[in-house]
Amino acid sequence: MAFDKLLYQSLSKLQKVCLTQNIPFVSYRLPLNREIFTLVQHHSMPEKLESLDGLHGRTGFVVAPFIDSGEHATFFLEPDCVFFSNDIADIYIEKLEANNRFIGLKKNTNTLHTTISDEFIDSVNKAIFDIKATEYQKLVLSKVRVEQLPNGFQPEDFFLKLCQKYPHAFVYMMQLPEVGCWIGATPEPLITIENGSVKTVSLAGTQIATDADTESYRWSSKEIDEQDIVTKYVEQTLRSLQISNISKTGPENYQAANLIHLKTAFEFPQTELKNRFSDILRALHPTPSVGGLPKAEALNFIIKNELHDRAYYTGFLGPINISEKSAIFVNLRCLQLFENNFVLYSGAGITSTSVAEKEWEETENKMQTMMNVMRSPNT
User: Fold this and answer.
1) Residue among 31, 359, 28 nearest 220 (CA)
2) Rounded to whole angstroms, how far apart are CA atoms 353 and 136?
3) Which of 44, 64, 202, 306 could potentially form a cystine with 231 if both were Cys, beta carbons 3.0 to 4.6 Å apart?
4) What's the sign of the alpha-carbon dihedral 316, 195, 200, 235?
């Protein structure tokens, strides 16, 4: 899928104006799709949601943190305008250039430091010990890397390159005043609704993709067990909500960017959903692919043992009722953009058979999704 920036000049100009004027917006491209949607909210601030019930019947874009707290909340961008790909009038861009409603808002500053390998390995070994000694089945630990922005970096060009490089991912660039500026190419849908059907997946296991056929990759018992933990959780969660007529496919190999994962897909009729969209989001998030099991105990372990704030990494985000589709994704393979630097996030699922040094390598491989594009020419 070619995304020649010459064909998207109006889109890039709109994005640049929004970034400069600090105007809330999001641009996104769904997996295996050419259409880029851009939602701009320029008359008011995005809404801070006290509850996911506030999504019912709405049209817009939701972004939620890993853990909803006083520091990080769920926000809903309700667009004043929705644009499709490059169909953007110059007069609208000129109006945004003159919009100073948001220009004085305080921008986020980076307070994070790169995770040291020894610190991460020590945390993984503690997790392995606790899994063997307690009721934990799985724990997910993450790390961060702080990098200086390349000279001449243009976020709008980087976004188009991600669209071209990773056609199977949900690619987005968003800026919300209290969330910051984030860019990502995530492979993991949390829940999608389209054409009368609801879909979700369990995704776990990671290998570097080579030129081999996707089906030819083989998995260790650790990776198979990790994927099975997530699959059982998703299935039990759906059953607990009295959802029936569920079809299940997999596990099967699935390529996402430079990585291969194990994926099991679930699908059921939208009539089963009724008015419980927010209930399913609450029940599924955070899944064991980003938190662990048992859910509450795993989250407590992460809060106590991770040395950084995940913020919106491993949260969820996506459009709701845009072009008759809702598509919520787990926020993986992402970076947070600051004035002079950016922060990369990645994580790994830990089980009783994990090897700490290999988990470090897995997190390094996951960061390459973004770094491969960041280091490419003309970014």
Assistant:
1) 359
2) 13
3) 202
4) positive
